[in-house]
Amino acid sequence: MTHNKKTAIISGASRGIGRAVAVELAGEGVNISFNYLKSSNDALDLEKEINDLGVKVKSFQVDIKDYKAVKSWVDDTKELFGGIDIIINNAGIVKDKALALMAPDDWHDVINTNLDGTFNLTRAAIVGLIKQKGGAIINITSVSGIVGIPRQTNYSASKAGIIGFTKSLAREVASYNIRVNAVAPGFIETDILKELKEDYKDQLVKQIPLNRLGKSEEVAKIVKFLVSEDAGYITGQTFVIDGGLSMV
Ligand code: NAP
Q1: Whose CA is closest to 236, among 198, 182, 184?
Q2: What are the pLDDT digits (tens) for 41-94?
Q3: Which domains does the chain have, with CATH numbers?
Q4: E strands, the chain, where?
Q5: CA–CA dist 36, 22 (Å, integer)
Q6: Whole-angstrom Cα distance, residue 159 to residue 68?
Q7: In the chain, which residues have pLDDT < 70?
Q8: Which residues, in sequence order, are CB contacts of 68 under 8 Å at separation 6+?
């Protein structure tokens, strides 16, 4: 792995998959700038953990839905760390409900956080990558955006949108040596699954060929590979990590 003091900007790293990605990349010597919405204590804990790994780290309480705030976060990161090499669009929420019962706010909150959030961070940071003629972007999507899951029309739409965004941008910026890929987890043990009832989770696990939920660290390992030079010939792809759940 050859990262040479690169900087990664990661959305939603106070908990779950984003946190695991931050730790994994920091372990490779990558400086980390991350945001979160509410979990200040978790963000401070992560800052401490990453500091101990000997790289620079800074957390920002920034709503990923707010373009102006995201732009300031990007500008502050560039000033503090000297540039941005890796963008990880990870912040995401669910608000599951049958479409017949879904309030417009449930639709908009999920689309604005997951899809607009991916636009906001990428749009604010992409010019720097273009100018330096290099970089890697990873968008965290979901198998829900590939196969569709009932009661997740809002979430599935946001995640399918992210896959289209990934392919389109990959073609657009390939000539600047910027690679853009997506990672599509299945069911990973994080707070996002808290809403699921235990008996539903048990049923779900029975449908997963590898017979267990995934771990954030397992998702982080693919992200680490995809942003590394070992993945230098890979762009515009979506990598599924779901224990075999969505295989056809
Ligand atoms: P999580 O444990 O709930 O963590 C979500 C993270 O996003 C937190 O750091 C949270 O910050 C941040 N966040 C949420 N809304 C935000 C906003 N408006 N502005 C800034 N930050 C915000 O979720 P996770 O399971 O790790 O999910 C991470 C990504 O993986 C999401 O995009 C999710 O859709 C995707 N994914 C997860 C699974 C799964 O099974 N876990 C499966 C497929 C895809 P606070 O801590 O401050 O709230």
Answers
A1: 182
A2: 999 999 999 999 999 999 999 999 999 999 999 999 999 999 999 999 999 999
A3: 7-241 (3.40.50.720)
A4: 7-10, 31-36, 57-61, 86-89, 135-140, 178-185, 238-241
A5: 13
A6: 23
A7: 1-4
A8: none
Of 44, 190, 200, which is best to mutate to test ligand 1, by the most ligand atoms within 8 angstroms of its C-beta? 190
7: tokens are 């900087």
Alpha carbon distances (Å) from 159 to 60, 142, 152, 183: 24, 6, 10, 10
Q: Whose CA is nearest to atom 31 of ligand 1?
A: 92
Q: Ligand 1, residues 46, 93, 191: which to mutate, most atoms within 8 A of Cβ?
A: 93
- Ligand 1: residues with CB < 6 A are 11-18, 35-39, 42, 63-65, 90-93, 113-114, 140, 142, 185, 187-188, 190-193
pLDDT for 41 equals 98
- 58 neighbors 8 (Cβ within 8 angstroms): no
Residue whose CA is at the smallest distance from ligand 1 atom 33: 92
Q: What is the pLDDT of residue 48?
A: 98
Catalytic site residues? 155
Contact call for residues 88 and 138 (beta carbons, < 8 A): yes
CA of 42 to the centre of ligand 1 (A): 13
Does the global pTM surpass 0.90?
A: yes
